[in-house]
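Quiz preparation item.
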């Protein structure tokens, strides 16, 4: 099969075209190494898929290309058999869902939390228009950005994150929605590969924006949307070395002693101001569990930790704290302070009723000290009784 491919005029033309594109990309890569490499991989994936679609070469094409390209470009590591198969899969992953891709990207553009993505789309559009001698400036009108997003090539967005990040996303994400979410949020926050993997493995996509809150009633748009997109439910504190029955003080102490990991779980934009932050009202002392300032929201955020089930009175107490912080700490350039109650468990209906009458913006979320065990593994784990019986054998 491979000898037939090598002798084929179609294959030789394909090989020459690929070599030409690689050389052109090498020149441009001096300035834009990663972007040009990703765009090259996209073109290579397209060419492989298209050639396979009307020949009977199958995987033999990839095997032969890997040998020839590795011989031609020995200093480049991207043409191994494994990487070419990955490129093929990566291209298929997105190109087979073009309509869905455009729909999801358009939805992200509308969200106030993806400001960098909006800028990127605007730059793509301006560059595209300038190629046609059109001076239209779409930076001034976000509606125009949304109207033009359908024309954005997904390859351009994918080229804004490293190849290793792209590989992790297609290997770990089950659907286009979550994959594009991690592409967009990596662009937004400039995540390292390890941070990206951590966020995928702790299911940020499923958790972000799921918090119970009264933000729509207490905050103006787009502040209410941004606040909702900033917070999540549940919060995963699996980096803490404590038992599930730990009290609030224990959790608070460990969170502040692991502040770097805590801030990573909270998300980008949180600045830590203090623990047991002191406030004085009418000669009485009050202490906030944790106080932060959020740089993008431009507001103070109070976090109250509760190592028990949610109770309605928690909201009333936090509502009081927020009023005090707005009077004593907030300046004229700050937005309204936001409160977050982190509790062991919550009843959704109870939490919604408790927040409905509050004048201050408050969210309620759960925390987990360990990652949830997948349902398909629970049945294979021993029960407490089984463990005790096993231990008794060695007494």
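Solution:
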């Amino acid at each position: 099969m491979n000898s037939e491919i090598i002798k084929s005029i179609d294959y030789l033309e394909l090989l020459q075209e690929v070599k030409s594109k690689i050389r052109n990309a090498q020149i441009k890569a001096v300035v834009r190494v990663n972007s040009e490499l990703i765009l090259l991989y996209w073109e290579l994936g397209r060419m492989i898929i298209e050639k396979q679609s009307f020949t009977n070469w199958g995987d033999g094409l990839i095997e032969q290309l890997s040998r020839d390209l590795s011989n031609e470009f020995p200093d480049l590591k991207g043409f191994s058999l494994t990487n070419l198969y990955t490129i093929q899969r990566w291209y298929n992953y997105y190109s087979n869902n073009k309509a869905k891709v455009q729909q999801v990207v358009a939805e992200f553009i509308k969200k106030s939390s993806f400001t960098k993505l909006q800028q990127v789309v605007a730059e793509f559009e301006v560059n595209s228009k300038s190629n046609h001698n059109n001076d239209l400036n779409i930076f001034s009108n976000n509606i125009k950005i949304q109207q033009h997003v359908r024309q954005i090539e997904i390859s351009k967005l994918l080229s804004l994150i490293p190849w290793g990040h792209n590989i992790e996303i297609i290997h770990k994400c089950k659907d286009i929605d979550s994959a594009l979410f991690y592409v967009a949020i990596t662009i937004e926050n400039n995540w390292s590969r390890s941070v990206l993997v951590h966020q995928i493995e702790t299911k940020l996509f499923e958790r972000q924006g799921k918090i119970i809150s009264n933000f729509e009633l207490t905050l103006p748009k787009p502040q209410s949307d941004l606040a909702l997109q900033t917070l999540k439910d549940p919060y995963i504190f699996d980096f803490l070395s404590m038992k599930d029955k730990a009290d609030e003080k224990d959790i608070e102490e460990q969170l502040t002693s692991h502040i770097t990991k805590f801030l990573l779980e909270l998300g980008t934009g949180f600045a830590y101001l203090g623990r047991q932050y002191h406030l004085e009202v009418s000669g009485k002392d009050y202490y906030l569990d944790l106080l932060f300032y959020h740089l993008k929201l431009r507001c103070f955020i109070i976090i109250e930790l509760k190592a028990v089930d949610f109770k309605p009175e928690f909201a009333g107490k936090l509502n009081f704290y927020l009023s005090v912080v707005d009077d004593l700490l907030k300046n004229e350039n700050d937005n309204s302070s936001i409160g977050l109650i982190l509790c062991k468990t919550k009843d959704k209906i109870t939490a919604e009723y408790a927040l409905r009458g509050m004048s201050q913006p408050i969210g309620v979320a759960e925390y987990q000290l360990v990652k949830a065990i997948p349902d398909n593994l629970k049945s294979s784990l021993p029960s407490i009784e089984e463990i005790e019986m096993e231990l008794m054998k060695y007494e």
